[in-house]
């Protein structure tokens, strides 16, 4: 389970960074990237789906970490 947690964490981080890289290549909006928690980023549907998939994998990694701590 340790490998699954690390793989989910690394894959999720890479996918989120890929979505943000695509956004930056399209808009060249560095300020929007640095303040990603604000609603200034206008992601395309594809970028949004990549971002959500990455965040979901990050949440899976956190859940696996909690399960591992409980066992």
Descriptive overview:
This is Aerotolerance regulator N-terminal domain-containing protein. The protein is mainly alpha-helical and about 70 residues long. It has one domain. Helix content is about 80%, strand content about 0%. The chain contains three helices and no strands. α1 runs antiparallel to α3. The longest helix has 26 residues. It is elongated, with a radius of gyration of 14 Å. The N and C termini lie close together (about 10 Å). About 15% of the residues are buried. The model has no long low-confidence stretch (mean pLDDT about 90).
List keywords for this structure.
71 residues; mainly alpha; 3 helices; single chain
List the helices and strands and how they pair.
Blueprint: H1 2-27, H2 30-34, H3 45-70
Helix pairs in contact: 1-3
Give the CA-CA distance, first to last residue: 11 Å
Pick out the low-confidence regions: none
Helix content: over 70%
% residues in beta strands: under 5%
Computed structural class: mainly alpha
In the residues, how many domains can be counted? Answer: 1
Shape: elongated
Most strands sheet:
none
Sum this structure up briefly:
The chain has 3 helices and no strands. The protein has about 70 residues and is mostly helical.
């Amino acid at each position: 389970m340790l490998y699954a947690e690390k793989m989910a964490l690394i894959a999720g981080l890479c996918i989120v960074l890929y979505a943000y890289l695509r956004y930056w290549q399209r808009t060249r909006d560095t300020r929007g990237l640095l303040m990603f928690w604000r609603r200034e980023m206008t992601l395309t549907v594809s970028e949004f789906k990549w971002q959500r998939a990455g965040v979901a994998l990050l949440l899976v990694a956190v859940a696996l970490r909690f399960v591992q701590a409980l066992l």
